[in-house]
Structure formats: C-alpha cells, structure tokens
Amino acid sequence: MEPGSGLQRRGPGFGGGGLGSAGVSPALSGPQARRRKQPPRPADFKLQVIIIGSRGVGKTSLMERFTDDTFCEACKSTVGVDFKIKTVELRGKKIRLQIWDTAGQERFNSITSAYYRSAKGIILVYDITKKETFDDLPKWMKMIDKYASEDAELLLVGNKLDCEVDREISRQQGEKFAQQITGMRFCEASAKDNFNVDEIFLKLVDDILKKMPLDVIRNELSNSILSLQPEPEIPPELPPPRPHVRCC
Amino acid sequence: MAAPSSAMEAAALGPEELVCARGRNRKAVLCQRCGSRVLLPGAATFTRRELFLPAMKKKTALVANSDLEGDVLQDHWLVEDMFSFENVGFTKDVGNVKFLICADCEIGPIGWHCLDDKKSFYVALDRVSHE
User: Fold this and answer.
1) Which of A25, A134, A184, A218 could hold A154 in an S-S bridge, CB 3.0 to 4.6 Å?
2) What InterPro entries does this protein's entry cite (chain B) (predicted)?
3) Is B93 within 8 Å of chain A by CB?
4) Does A85 sit within 8 Å of B103, measured CB to CB?
5) B interface test, pick of A41, A75, A81, A102 with most B CB neighbours within 10 Å
6) How many CB pairs under 8 A join A and B?
7) Is A145 left (phi over 0), alpha (psi -120 to 50) or beta?
8) Looking at residue A3, what DSSP letter applies?
9) Is the pLDDT of residue A102 over 90?
10) Do B106 and A72 make contact, defined as CB atoms within 8 angstroms?
11) The pTM of the whole model exceeds 0.80
C-alpha cells in the first residue's frame, strides 16, 4: 500500500467547477437534510473508474440496470455511451464516480493511456465461461503496469455468474490470479442478474477511501482528485465511434 | 453560447410547482423510465432555450429510418458543472454535442451539452420526471 502517494501527482485537471467545499462539514442527514435549502450537498469526492477487459465479457452491462430493447437507437447503438457520472454514498461520504466503459476499444493497444493515467479505480473483467478472456488477463495487467497510476485500486471481476453451467474458469483460478497482484481484489458477478454489480463499485470506492489518510481526505474535499471534462485528453488515435457488438 | 434568461425571469416563465423563487428546481429530477436520480432539488436552474433533441424511442421502432426525428424543446434545467449530477450518462460526441442519457437504463436523450460551452448542461423538463 502506498497511501495517497500518487495524489499529488494526479493532474490538477480543471478545478472541479462549482463543487465547493461548503456543506461538507456539518453532516446533513435524514429528512431534515432533504428539506434543507439549496444548494444541495456537493460531492465529497470525485473518482474516475475505468472498466476494462476483453471483448464480450460484459463490461458495458456492469454499468447498466437493464439490457433490454428500450435504448434510444440514435444515442446508444450508433453513437455509444462515452461515460457516466454515478453517485454512491459510503461511510458518510458522498462520492461521484465518473465511469468510463472502454467497450469497443478492446484491442489491447487501442485503449489509450489517458484512460489509465487518470483512473483511480480499475475494474478488470473477464468472462467465467470463456477461458480466453481469462488468459488475456496478463496482457491487460501489462497495460495497467505501463500506464496506470501506482495507487490505482484494482478489482478483478469474473462476470457472467448467471451462466454457471458453462463455467470454464473456477472461482479459485480467479482468486489465485488476483492474489498474485498486490492489492488486487476479486469477486464474481452477474450483470444480468445484477448480482454483485453495485457491490463492485462500492467495494472499489471503499478501498480507495481506505487508502486515503484523513488529512488527505480533508484537503481533497473541495478539490477534485480527478476532474475530467467531457472531453479529456482523448488522443487522436482513439478509434471512431462504431456500433459495437454486445454480448449475451 | 447559451444565453439563459435571468433566474428570476425564468422562474416567472416556468412551471411554478417545479421552479422555486430563486429559479432552481424545487423537486428532484428523475429518469422517467427507471426512476434513477439525475439531479437533487436545487441543483439546477430553470432556463429557456430552443434545443433539438432526437426522439426517445425504442430500438425496434427505428432502425431503417435515417431521418432523425425529435423535438425542439424549450424548457430546461441548466447545470454548470457535470459533477453536480447525481447520475447521468453522456453519449460520445455527435458533432460538437454530447447527449445526456439516464445513467442506469440509458434511455435518452434527456439532455444536451455542447462541447463549446463547458459550463452548460441542459436537461429537458419534458424528458424527465420530477419528485
């Protein structure tokens, strides 16, 4: 563990806009808080999380509640989702996650370093029913080692727990892989059944918070650890948006 | 650039039950379909601006139709900082625009953001519910 060592290195980004530190100290709670006058309590943290893994392992579905028929064609299949802002509350802290799903850029070298550099949490996904996606993990780790910040929290996720009958990779294999990597956590999930999906994000955030010494937390309250504008330093070699094939 | 009317003017024009005296949203802004929380009360300012949003449609209803159907919408919640959102998704760029979608069920577009104006994120009142 290297508590907070990378925080200073983290790019200053843009100052995080209007999210001041006001309202952080007196912990508002309960219905009283809800009725309280605006502005609403700002987030205590902003963290960027990226989801990586080989094609078809279900990265995108880890971010979705439904995988049905009802998405807007114009804005989803043809244009694609770029990123999401999601809010979780944990240990009295309100955390805004900016989640980047790298689906559609699965070729190892095509996911640009910018994604990795700014990530505070990295979710590496494989499909428990497809051995090759598990075999790809070392290649993904190479990318992480090369580009990601050292203090980025790592979580290995064996997805598609709902397809137990087709399982090719045992839980132990996944655990064993994660154990070889310092600080990497492991869990199995099923985006289809929503099993463990919320927990994945909570777990990751919890780990990130745990690693921060208190004073850092205090200092960072008003300053985003990471604040990306909708167009981060997306390098030119990023492939153009294309309709991607979705699994399951 | 957006030229939002002043908060007071907006409040006068807007649906009273939704806009407080200071021109902000009185109620939480939710996804119409799945109820995902987009904005907390008070997080946005009512504003009027004509913006075109493609129609919210089911996948099966579209496909071959290349003509982009949609609506020109007037009433919006304006947010200056994208980290003011509780939950929201952004599409990839369409020209210099990103559309806003529900972060959970991904229905949309519910809003509009122009890359030329980094401090303006619009959520159309007609495309969300209020609670």
Assistant:
1) A184
2) Mss4 (IPR007515), Mss4-like_sf (IPR011057), Mss4/transl-control_tumour (IPR011323)
3) yes
4) yes
5) A75
6) 145
7) alpha
8) T
9) no
10) yes
11) no
